[in-house]
């Protein structure tokens, strides 16, 4: 519950003092800052009442920020702090600081996610099925991004891009050839691009020709980088980037490596003239010339949903070079026995010390923050947190350091000299987030140190 309740009690005693302070402050506008701080001090000093109604005044950052505004009047400040007084009878008033708290919560999360502002995606954005499949693959693999492609193995960020059609000219004007351009300007400069692929969908070919139907058709798919654009009568200058020989027995996606071209576009964006994709029959199927089942262009028969799920996409794999600061729990399967033993120890310790250091549930709900319009998955996640006392002697599962043990010994001798060791996370794991960024691009990213896996005394 993000509602913060501020109780103000017996405020009338301080009104005269505050009003006199305001009168002095109005004479010298530079004193308004000190007046604001005085006001905050007066409100904080009211935290104890005769009946104990007011135990604490919670000042969120948004409220504290108000003390830095010299032009706010006394009553504006009082309103922001939800201070009310009814001279007929004493009442408790509740002020909902949900909006202020949400703003601060939102800004902190955006900072963690590496976003400058909250994305506001267009309503017509379609999430490629490939990105959804990748996300499902990652959450089943403990949120650690892993790929068969060795170049993409070190990536922790995946982005998908849809193309804009370039005007066809010269010999590229049939179903067997298409020119595409991708805007990749939203990839941050600090990220290291490890791989880039063009994904093309080949539908299962159904032919009316019995002879063709019995054969397994083979195609050659070539992708060229456009080095210099052409015009109506002249073909562009191109260089071959990748080629694949594929069978059309079953519907499948074909991956073409265009990493060299994308690297060049990042270094020199002005040289991004796009790519040209060509389809031709292999030597084993020389007579076949119908390539409409290769989804390079949208045919009249395709619906919007079919085209969006089958259109070509550029997928980039990169690494933001942000390292995990804490030991990660990544070998879950290999440590099953060790985990069981730890759980037994925890169970025994909980019986002995109910308030001992342990992991507690903490669910972060993106829907409640209002982020469900740009975060595709998950709708929220269990972050957990560590809480509890560090009791001597320490159990094995608390992973106490030698320093923590020494600190506890010193504290037991002289409690005023040093505090007791604290219950903190000792093992953290990442989460995978599928979202739409501020440039309307679909991103799958692994964020390190987001879930507490283990707690200890440090």
SS-based structural class? alpha+beta
Poorly predicted ranges: 1-16, 43-98, 284-288, 328-338
Q: What profile does the largest beta sheet have?
A: 7 strands, antiparallel
Task: Please give the count of helices.
Answer: 12
GO molecular function, one term: cytokine activity
GO biological process, one term: cell differentiation
InterPro entries: Cystine-knot_cytokine, TGF-b_C, TGF-b_propeptide, TGF-beta-rel, TGFb_CS
Protein name: Bone morphogenetic protein 2/4
Supply database-style keywords.
alpha+beta; Cystine Knot Cytokines, subunit B; 3 domains
Short note summarizing the structure:
One of its GO terms (cellular component) is extracellular space. This protein has 12 helices and 16 strands.
Which secondary structure elements does this structure contain, and how are they paired or packed?
Layout: H1 12-27, H2 32-44, H3 61-64, H4 74-80, H5 98-112, H6 129-139, E1 157-162, E2 164-165, E3 177-181, E4 192-202, H7 210-214, E5 218-228, E6 237-247, E7 252-257, H8 259-267, E8 275-281, H9 304-310, E9 313-319, H10 336-352, E10 358-360, E11 363-365, H11 366-369, E12 375-377, E13 380-382, E14 385-387, H12 402-413, E15 423-436, E16 442-457
Description of the structure:
The protein has 458 residues and is α+β, with helices and mostly antiparallel strands. It folds into 3 domains: 12-103; 157-319, no CATH class; 336-457, Cystine-knot cytokines (Cystine Knot Cytokines, subunit B). 26% of the residues lie in helices and 24% in strands. The protein has 12 helices and 16 strands. The protein has helices at 12-27, 32-44, 61-64, 74-80, 98-112, 129-139, 210-214, 259-267, 304-310, 336-352, 366-369, 402-413, and strands at 157-162, 164-165, 177-181, 192-202, 218-228, 237-247, 252-257, 275-281, 313-319, 358-360, 363-365, 375-377, 380-382, 385-387, 423-436, 442-457. Strands 7-4-9-1-16-15-12 form a 7-stranded antiparallel β-sheet, sandwiched between helices. The protein has a 5-stranded antiparallel β-sheet with strand order 2-3-8-5-6, with no helix packed on it. β5 and β6 (237-247) form a beta hairpin. It is elongated, with a radius of gyration of 31 Å. The relative contact order is 0.13. Residues 1-16, 43-98, 284-288 and 328-338 have low confidence and may be disordered.
